[in-house]
């Protein structure tokens, strides 16, 4: 750890930003060849022949032309994808993004210093908030250590988006308002917003140049809680953020026209560091089962105490369990996990206690943000809550720990832990559904300037051949193992390729967007059934992601109605998984898939052990 301390004092968080390489555009023939390879598991010989012809035509015709235009675009931008991705993946969506895009996960503090205990909500909230503010302060001073992957510096831009950031609904496209600044760049908003029982409050986290201490934050939060618990509930305006986007944009305009003061209050929420949500529910949680916390918090929670557009919110439940809830558009999960890991480490080092001074300065009381509302808004809030609860009641979500083994044993058997889990997911889907499942795994492209993600298509021909061998009783252990090694090699090669800017999904998206910008017809490649059945255009039935090797794991909902979300963190002794599906789809069942994955993990490790005997 000595090294990290040294690094953080010498290196500045954002000092390498200008030295990062630009996001490359891969060669067209390479991308198309990889694409063809990825559609094989889903097509018969005749269909594949047809797709091969379409791809060939695309490569020698319109595709070549679009690729040239994409190369032109890349010349004048350090990241040719950045604006496009933000719009297409997030800001153009018109569905409820709070339900369909937000990410969230529980704090693992229940596993060590903070087991569930009634009456600890405010006490833990103020300590956790203080550590989060310390991270904000380190970021302002550029003392958060620069992250690396195998000695290569990673882009740190996403960390700027955690604080003072909010999505603003638009009639056809949303936007992101962002007010964070480092100390060198200037002033940065320093107030927090608190949501409690349908009401919204704000207070400054800095008083006379010094950050509020946990006892001072405790005074503020206790005041808010007492006020809310002794008076009627507020209107619950925050529920509107869970609406379909165009609807929320129109209602927001209506609110501003109703009273210009509403505009000032909305801006106060937008500019705030982050939101603290005091939730009255008391979810059950154990180190092996976080299901209730996650289903209640990631999505199913009270929409009147969640401002769904804030980039970062901390939700504190009445029994002292807490979790993170984030708008996904400005950053990906790893930035959040790095910050959460920092706060957890500090909470743990101090045994969950505040060991500093208990002196409370004479600080201004929190101010309530009282919106002017009329009957129309009250009705709309009621309607938004109704729609929200109907949708989230359809969500099936399980969050369990597989405790038979973890990273230590997998690595001892000389396998990549992430690939190990990915192949278990493939085998489980095949077992449950009797066919291959097109799968999206997130690869990180942060080696490049403002890089975010690329798609690893985990369902390869090699994986499918191996799955078939595992389900065929006549196959020998030796043959199964050989096929497993081939599937591993393929996946590891794809991961490396994607992380180095040589994936093909974002490239194909770029070519399609160039065509759209030029007003050209959609090329046949994208209209072909092979494109959709292999997951293209956001049609992956398995939406998966490794959330790292720490104690943090969270999740999001499936990408499609008949799909699954599957998110996992891999620790030395366990694999914690978050699996979701929609109850209204008769063929998917998150509980069944999750249990089947666990069985497949056992089968795989047994296979590797048997081979050594």
From TrEMBL:
Its main location: other. Pfam families: Carn_acyltransf. The keyword Transport applies. GO terms for molecular function: carnitine O-octanoyltransferase activity. GO terms for biological process: fatty acid beta-oxidation. Keywords: Acetylation, Acyltransferase, Fatty acid metabolism, Lipid metabolism, Peroxisome, Transferase, Transport. It is found in: Peroxisome. Coiled coil: none annotated. The active site is at 328 (proton acceptor). Its EC number is 2.3.1.137. SUPFAM superfamilies: CoA-dependent acyltransferases. The keyword Mitochondrion does not apply. It comes from the Eukaryota. The lineage of its organism: Eukaryota, Metazoa, Chordata, Craniata, Vertebrata. It comes from Amazona collaria (yellow-billed parrot). Residues 23-597 form the Choline/carnitine acyltransferase domain. Pathway: Lipid metabolism; fatty acid beta-oxidation. One of its GO terms (cellular component) is peroxisome. It catalyses: 4,8-dimethylnonanoyl-CoA + (R)-carnitine = O-4,8-dimethylnonanoyl-(R)-carnitine + CoA; octanoyl-CoA + (R)-carnitine = O-octanoyl-(R)-carnitine + CoA. Belongs to the carnitine/choline acetyltransferase family. This is Peroxisomal carnitine O-octanoyltransferase. It is an enzyme of class 2 (transferase).
